[in-house]
Design goal:
mainly beta; elongated; 3 helices
Length: 239
């Protein structure tokens, strides 16, 4: 197997993606292949998803038995190193092998929507972009108190079912955390499911009907009587 490895690394080829990979090299250490490269830094703080592909499957899938500077959230810079356990992953493969390194820019973690309010008992969509980890933690913040809402996959979307008992008011914020990155939403308000005025209108209407229903018991003060029959005139002997 050692001779096979030597044949595999004699002709290393590392096409670059976006001209960000430089000074690539491969060497054999025991039963492992060490792949080294420099990742040219772009914008300050920019991170990358780095994958390495091999010709043994026509570059169809990234290498799996790898450790080191590979995967999600790799910072740019020189002296990157990846250790590949090719003996385990290749098993019975024989022949020459070339490699391909792919580095894709990861967007900084940020919110994509900024709803001004949420309603109790309703769904509030939470949307974001970026993040270098596979999972995102979603939390609710109010007056310094942090409430965990969910830990979900980093697919850019989470539907938050606002509790029907959630306290209403302003000054709420959402915070998402992905790996070592975090982002906080602008402040928003939580409102009742049914506005207060709509709840009061039926009560006022009932009170008005009750007042009308109780008004037929008589008259007082200067109100004229409801039955004003005039007395018969005196008999003047004319009939």
């Amino acid at each position: 197997m050692k001779k096979l490895f030597l044949a595999l690394i004699l002709l290393p080829s590392f096409p670059t993606i976006g001209q960000k990979i430089e000074n690539w090299n491969a060497s054999l250490q025991g039963d492992k292949i060490i792949i080294s490269y420099d990742l040219v830094q772009g914008a300050p703080g920019e991170k990358y998803n780095v994958s390495i592909y091999g010709s043994f499957d026509n570059f169809a899938s990234p290498l799996q038995k790898v450790t080191g500077d590979v995967g999600h959230g790799i910072m740019g810079g020189p002296g990157k190193k990846v250790i590949w356990d090719g003996k385990t992953e290749l098993k019975g493969f024989k022949g020459e092998l070339t490699f391909e390194i792919r580095a894709e820019v990861v967007s900084a973690l940020s919110f994509r929507n900024a709803a001004p309010s949420a309603k109790r008992g309703k769904i509030m969509p939470v949307q974001w972009r970026g993040g270098s980890a596979k999972e995102v933690k979603v939390e609710l913040i109010k007056d310094g108190v942090v409430t965990h809402l969910a830990t979900t996959s980093n697919n850019g979307n989470y539907d938050w079912a606002v509790s029907a008992k959630q306290k209403t008011g302003s000054g709420y914020q959402l915070m998402i955390t992905c790996g070592e990155e975090s982002a906080t939403s602008p402040p928003f308000a939580i409102k009742p499911k049914v506005p207060t005025m709509i709840k009061l209108i039926p009560l006022v209407a009932v009170a008005a009907v009750a007042g009308l229903a109780g008004g037929g018991g008589g008259s007082t003060g200067n109100n004229p009587p409801t039955n004003q029959n005039l007395p018969s005139p005196p008999d003047m002997g004319l009939n």
